[in-house]
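User: Last request for today: this protein with coenzyme A, please.
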Amino acid sequence: MNTAFISRQYRVRTLSESDVPDILALCEKNRLYYQYCPPFVSARSIRGDMTALPPGKEAADKYYVGYYDGEKLIAVLDLILAYPDKETAFIGFFMTDVSVQGKGTGSGIISELCGYLAGTGVKKVRLGWVRGNPQAEHFWHKNGFAETGSAYDTEKYTVIVAEREVCYGV
Ligand SMILES: CC(C)(COP(=O)(O)OP(=O)(O)OC[C@H]1O[C@@H](n2cnc3c(N)ncnc32)[C@H](O)[C@@H]1OP(=O)(O)O)[C@@H](O)C(=O)NCCC(=O)NCCS
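Assistant: Here's the final one, the structure of the complex with coenzyme A:
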């Protein structure tokens, strides 16, 4: 996957160690998210997320990317290709900067991403949200994701699994 093509509106590139302060600044303003999905973000947890992989996956299928409006980081996306099966892409994390929220920014990014993925042969996009988090649940419903009926428990919260089919040009 060429990250440069997943958005026409924003510049997208892989994030690395030197970007951790900017990622932290974006994340720590989203306090509601961490109330549902503790612990609260730190530079260390971001470094862990940058390399975290689901079982059986390799780094080549992971895209931990930043969306830039000019020089400003406005969104972070963690995408795993071909997980849990060949035709499915998995969003492990998605967050926008509070300064751009409520203006269609997140929906625009997800819509462009789904259209791009469909063009590469992906059929479905899957993700999870923490049960009870209204912001995440409403956002993903608004963007066409529906519960699969599966959920799993972690020590501190329950994750609801959801997915949507993707179509080329949509
Ligand atoms: C969810 C998130 C990505 C939305 O980004 P955005 O740039 O505001 O996206 P949009 O403007 O396209 O969509 C906003 C929608 O989010 C939902 N939403 C946002 N804040 C909400 C809140 N406090 N309560 C309920 N729904 C909320 C609504 O569906 C809203 O749509 P509406 O304006 O039509 O009501 C952003 O709020 C965020 O980064 N939150 C923290 C991280 C997170 O929850 N990520 C998703 C789970 S991995």
